[in-house]
Amino acid sequence: MAAYKLEINNQTHDVNVEKGTSLLWVLREHLGLTGTKYGCGIAQCGACTIHIDGNPMKACVLSVDDFSDGQKITTIEGLSKDGDHPVQQAWIEKQAPQCGYCHSGQIMQAVALLEANPTPSRDEIKAFMNGNLCRCGTYLRIIEAIEMAGKTIAAK
Fold this sequence. Notes:
Blueprint: E1 2-8, E2 11-17, H1 23-30, E3 49-52, E4 55-58, E5 72-74, H2 86-93, H3 103-116, H4 122-128, H5 139-155
Parallel strand pairs: 1-5
Antiparallel strand pairs: 1-2, 3-4, 3-5
Helix pairs in contact: 2-5, 3-5
């Protein structure tokens, strides 16, 4: 066992886990942050997408050993206190989720896109979201939600 200090959702967490433990399992099993989902375990589906210093990353292939003091981890639980982030609101308005399993990862990926470019074209959205799969196939609603959220963000 090894001790780690992680900054997650603006809170410092001390965890004791085996070296090499996946960040996904630290989040889910040790800290109870179950919004980050396990999908494939090989960074191909995007269900486990979180932000590391604002960059979208797949938590299933990150080791807790990969983190240094000062790096900020954000999960879907840390995106907003009341689910009122413009992307979350657009997701509801456009009824983007069907089963909903992939959507915390989808939302985290979309937030990173819109922070870099609040008015992406459809082609830019498709390219940026390419690593996040939706087995229900709600891609058109996801794209529409991202466009809607982008307009809200750009207007601020």
